[in-house]
Amino acid sequence: MAARSRSILRIIMNRRSIRAFHPKKISPSVVRLLVEAGQRAPCTYQSYSVIIIENEDVKSKLAELTDDQLFVKAPLLMLICIDFRRTALMFDQLTDKHVLRSDRHPVETIEAIFEAGLFAENIVIAAEALGYGSVMLDWALWMNKEVSSLLRLPKGVTPLIFLCIGLSAEKPPLRPRLPLEMILHHEEYREPSAEELRKYIEEASMKLAKENYLKKYANSNKTYLEYLSEKIAVDKQVEKLNSSISSFLNNNGIKI
Ligand SMILES: Cc1cc2nc3c(=O)[nH]c(=O)nc-3n(C[C@H](O)[C@H](O)[C@H](O)COP(=O)(O)O)c2cc1C
Fold first, then answer.
1. In angstroms, rounded to a whole number, what is the distance separating the alpha carbons of residues 165 and 77?
2. Whether the CB of 17 sits within 6 Å of ligand 1
3. How far is the CA of 88 from the centre of ligand 1 (A)?
4. Residue 172 CA: which ligand 1 atom is closest?
5. What is the mean pLDDT of the chain?
6. CATH number of the domain encompassing residue 63
7. Mean pLDDT over residues 83-97, rounded?
8. SS3 104
9. Is residue 11 situated within a structural domain?
10. Nearest atom of ligand 1 to the alpha carbon of 70
11. Burial group, residue 17, by CB count within 10 angstroms (0-12, 13-18, 19+)
């Protein structure tokens, strides 16, 4: 038992996102096993679905849409969705006036996102246990309308995250994380100082530069600090995009 838990811990502590894969495909039985492992995660209403994408045409369109070649290079591409459609149909069996047919369901919404995350992470860890690497891609949220129509998702099924899985063709180092002291609090919450936060950002930026991270994956000469500053900046265009994403989500039942 101790050896088994040590090996699970080793898997968790050594996982890193993999963005270069050997082309070898993953068999349908392994795909089913991964999804079954995902389903064993703690859950509330199991408001998630996963779509396996094998159609080369769809993959090429996704790559074109996002300018991200992982869509065509990943041996296994899946899209994890929040599925309030099925859950609402299931609730219809119990009562016609239920929370998913009402205008606000903040708890169910947050829990659905949360359980879809647990589902996804279980798949990631199961894949690691079988020797596969993976990376999550958040294009599904940014390009929700395009992804939805490309994959013909019905209303109530919201694209959440793409998951690329395959045999790793790279050995990247562990990526930086916030110091444990910023995450772990005892008895009461401790807010980190501006200096601590700045120090972390600079250290993370240095570590990622050492790996050549942005050059390798985004062909960018920016430092991580510069990249992050740009990524989080808000202008009129970002505000417009966010407002369109919010209404798409709302229309699909993601109501907080
Ligand atoms: C919600 C979410 C969205 C992500 N989106 C992307 C993405 O679009 N492209 C990408 O290359 N990596 C993406 N990642 C992977 C993160 O960049 C990666 O997990 C993080 O940099 C830490 O690196 P590590 O996983 O190697 O420890 C995403 C991860 C999460 C959890």
1. 7
2. yes
3. 31
4. 26
5. 96
6. 3.40.109.10
7. 97
8. coil
9. yes
10. 11
11. middle
Is the CB of 113 inside a 6 Å radius of any atom of ligand 1? no
230-255: pLDDT as tens digits: 999 999 999 999 999 999 999 999 99
Taking residue 213's Cβ as centre, other Cβ atoms within 10 Å add up to: 21
Atom of ligand 1 nearest to the CA of 139: 8
Residue 1 parent element (H or E): none
Tell me if 236 is assigned to some domain: no
pLDDT at 82: 98
- The encoded tokens of residue 237 equal 């265009």
Q: Does ligand 1 come within 6 angstroms of the Cβ of 137? A: yes
Residue 97 C-alpha to ligand 1 middle, in angstroms?
Answer: 39
The count of domains in the chain is 1
Q: What is this structure's pTM?
A: 0.96
Let me know if residue 253 belongs to a domain: no
Among 142, 172, 170, smallest CA distance to 158 is for 142
> What is the DSSP secondary structure assignment for residue 100, as one 8-state letter?
G
What is the span of the domain harbouring residue 153? 2-172
